[in-house]
Amino acid sequence: MKLKDTLTGLFVLMLLGGIGYLWLAPSGLARAPDITLSTLHGEKIPLSTLRGQPVLVNFWATSCPGCIKEMPHLVELYEELAPKGFEIIGIAMSYDPPDHVIALTNARKLPYPIALDIKGDAARAFGDVRLTPSSFLIAPDGRIVHQKIGEMDMPKVRALIIDMLAQTDSPPLVNTN
C-alpha cells in the first residue's frame, strides 16, 4: 500500500509540475514579434530594424540568481561577437523597479542595450514570458531558432550565433553601442 501511495503522489506531483510549466512557460514562437523596445537611455529600438543580423533577446530580473550568474557569459559573448554583427538586448521584467535595473546594469557594466518592459508588452509579445532568465535567439531572417527558459548552454548558443554570422554577408544594420 505504501508503494501505491508513493507512486500516486509522484504522479500527482508530475502532473502539477507539467501544468505549472505549461502555464508559466512562454509559448513557442516561430518569428520574432514586431515590437519597439525602450532602453534605459531613452532610445527606441524597433526589433525589426535588427533584421539581417542574429539577435539574442534575454528577459531577466534583478532578483533572479540565474540571470545574474548568466550576465558575465552574456557580456563575454557580446564583446566577442558584436563586432561581427551580433546583438544582445536585455529586457528587464515589468515587476523590476527601474532604479534596481539601472543599478545592476551599472554594477555589472552591461555593454549591450537594456530595455525596460514597464507595462509587460515585450513579455506578452514573446509569448507571455513569466520566468527568468528566458532567452530567444533570433536568426537574421527573423525566425526564432532557439528558446531557453533558465540559464543557457553558452557553448551551444555561441556555436549557433557563429554559424548564423558565417552565413550573413551584410554588416549590422544598427549598432547600438
What are the key terms here?
177 residues, Glutaredoxin, five-stranded mixed beta sheet, disordered C terminus
Question: Could you describe the 3D structure shown?
Answer:
This protein is of the alpha/beta class and 177 residues long. It contains 5 helices and 7 strands. Helix 2 runs parallel beside helix 5. The C terminus is likely disordered.
DSSP helical segment count = 5
Strand element count: 7
Largest sheet: 5 strands, mixed
What is the residue-averaged pLDDT?
87
Share in helix: 25-40%
What's the alpha carbon Rg, rounded to whole Å?
18 Å
CATH topology: Glutaredoxin
State the secondary-structure class.
Answer: alpha/beta
Q: What is the terminal separation in angstroms? A: 64 Å
What's the CATH H-level homologous superfamily? Glutaredoxin
Strand order of the largest sheet: 5-4-3-6-7
Give the strand content. 15-25%
Taken from the alpha-carbon principal axes, the silhouette is globular
Task: Quickly give the CATH architecture.
Answer: 3-Layer(aba) Sandwich
InterPro entries: AhpC/TSA, Thioredoxin-like_sf, Thioredoxin_domain, Thioredoxin_ResA/DsbE_sf
Protein name: Thioredoxin
GO molecular function: antioxidant activity; oxidoreductase activity
Organism: hydrothermal vent metagenome
Quick structural gist:
The protein is of the alpha/beta class and 177 residues long. The chain has helices spanning 2-24, 65-81, 98-107, 121-125, 154-167; strands at 36-38, 44-46, 55-60, 87-92, 114-116, 134-138, 144-149.
